[in-house]
Amino acid sequence: MPAPAADRFPDAREQASPHAGLLPVPEPLDELFPYGGLPRGSVVTVDSVTLALALIASPDAAGAWSGALGIPDLGLAAAQEAGIALSRFVLVPHPGEQWATAAAVLIDGLDVLLTTFPRGTGPAQARRLSARARERHTTVIALRGWPGSVDLRIQLLRGQWMGLDHGYGRLTGRRCQLVSSGRGAAARERRVTAWLPPGP
Amino acid sequence: MAATRTVTLWCPDWPLTAVGIPADAPAAVLVDGAVLACSASARREGVRRGIRRREAQRRCPPLRLLDRDPAQEMRAFEPVLAALASVCPEVEVVRPGLCLFAARGPARYFGGDAALAQVTAAAAGTALPDTVRVGIADGRFAAGLAAREAAIVPRGGSAAFLAPQPVSTLERPALAVLLARLGLVTLGDVAALPARQVATRFGAEGERAHQLARGLDEQRIAVRIPPPELAVQEELDPPLDQIEPLAFVAKRLADELSALLASRGLGCDRLGVQLETEHGETQHRLWRHDGTLTASAVAQRVRWQLTGWLGGSSAVRPSAGITLIRLVPGEVYRDVGEQLSLFHPGLGDDTGDGDERAATALNRLQGLLGFDAVHLPVPAGGRRPAEQARLVPWGEPRPARHRSTPPWPGRLPAPNPTLLHPGGLPAQVVDATGTSVLVDDRGAISAAPVQLSIGGGKPTRIVDWAGPWPVDERWWYDPAEHRSFARFQVVTTDGTARLLTVQQGQWRVEGTYD
Hints:
- The structure holds 2 protein chains of 2 kinds.
- Chain A is α/β, with parallel strands linked by helices.
- Chain A has helices at 5-8, 12-16, 49-61, 76-82, 99-109, 123-136, and strands at residues 22-23, 38-39, 43-46, 66-69, 89-92, 112-116, 139-143, 152-165, 168-182, 190-196.
- In chain A, the strands form 2 sheets. In chain A, strands 5-4-6-7-3-8-9-10 form an 8-stranded mixed β-sheet, sandwiched between helices. Chain A has a two-stranded antiparallel sheet with strand order 1-2.
- Chain B has an 8-stranded mixed β-sheet, with helices on both faces.
- Chain B is built from 14 helices and 19 strands.
- By secondary structure, chain B is α+β, with helices and mostly antiparallel strands.
- In chain B, helix 12 (243-263) runs antiparallel to helix 13 (295-310).
- Chain B is 30% helix and 27% strand.
């Protein structure tokens, strides 16, 4: 059987991508992405903050700017443990009424934006921001849903926390089954079992 | 070049005095976990500037710790500056609580140095009784030290006055340690060394220290009054009366000025800031800085001035919005600069292509949402997950990171919760019989927890749990801050893990492992 095109030409993976490049993603989470990386300019929804932080950590280590908009509860100790250096991790915890404007400005300036869609903002707003993200090559990671079409949706099917034993032990990690689906090359469902936070 | 005869007015422990802490209350202001200033009574207990928080608390257990309030420092200093205008029109502010001016003209007018010191103290005293000290000496450095002792150093006597002072007064800690190890403990010892050898052995920093120790101020190459085109200004239409948007404009002007000076290879250590309102009221202040004024230092000084004027009492506050901000460099010199490493350009991590793009966007966002809405976190010490990072507004100088993280016994081991609920969400945890689970004083649990309900919501079954982990802290502060509680980690049937705390029978969700 001939090898698939992507393997014969290492660059083909990237060329086949509709976007201007890929941001690195640690193993084994890379298997969730059709091109093995987080495509720049795409909108990805996740339903776990741990997963979102794990996706930000690798670009952060490579020198990318990232930020969290409208997530005042975000645990920064957890962000540090995920490997985010914090010196290029912008926080805008309370954008208030100006969420959409702030999101647009941050999309202009950052490489990865983590946010949650506030109530009272509609699909038109989402469409405009998706278009802006595509144009600026900024990846938007939306926590718990995005009221427009998204490039990739990553869901946590099942998570099993390890380490507790009726009074003894402590949380050590979570064995997670993740499934991703999306548009175009991502239409085929991909399943991965991984530790979140990435660990043993 | 002979050092200029200078009058220095100093308010001791200004960060405390400005917020209304009397000298006999043990208190200290902390910046980045180290003491910035402490009250006289704390000093008697052994608290010193620069020591760490824990050390300060060990030396003086009842010590009250305060955060720095630069805005209040400037607001409280503004009346002093206004009062000094009757003594000398050209007062240069170094920082809130410390200002200086040239003695020559005023001393002649008031009839000698002693009379001038008296008049200055009296003028400042009308605004701020019993807390000011005035010193006069040749040179800014000597005058600053003279102010600590409220002394008038005779003309030409600066070198003799400085000789017995310890090398730590140079405010260059690394150099001071080195000099002390070499047996040079006073400024007199340093001054006695041959200038050329000092420069060879200690470099530019040592050369400066040597000049200061000899009673000469730092000498610049070709100090001159700059041509007028070096000033930058912004006319504001409509006028602005809020500090945040004004500070934003000031930041941009500061960047512009800094780029303008840098393009000519100039540095500046004295800056004039002129503000004008719609009703024609003007305010002009001179700011003096030890070393080259960087863009962020300039922006901070404009901010201080704006806070002092706009946020002051109704007596000093202008009646209309600001229409003009103008920055005029006072004295410029050829900036020899600092040699930065070729392989680690800059001091922070902020270099590269994305940085400029991010900086532009973040500045814009600050203009939209306000200065305090955009942050970069800085790792910090603390036991609670929420204490392990601190938010610093974008554009503020980031504190230098400690090389190693000091141990925090009692810290939760990784992983930490990804979502933290400030103050905690009220919850109920019951055992198999439906009674609330309690933890007694010895850390023993009344029964195994079985059900959790958050905020009166639907109860979920607890699948597994760990705890209690008792936490007993801050009893070393006053009793109001004492916290004694126990932590649990629980996993419920929906697969979610949470961090719970129980304090006096009240359960709360501190964080969620999402």
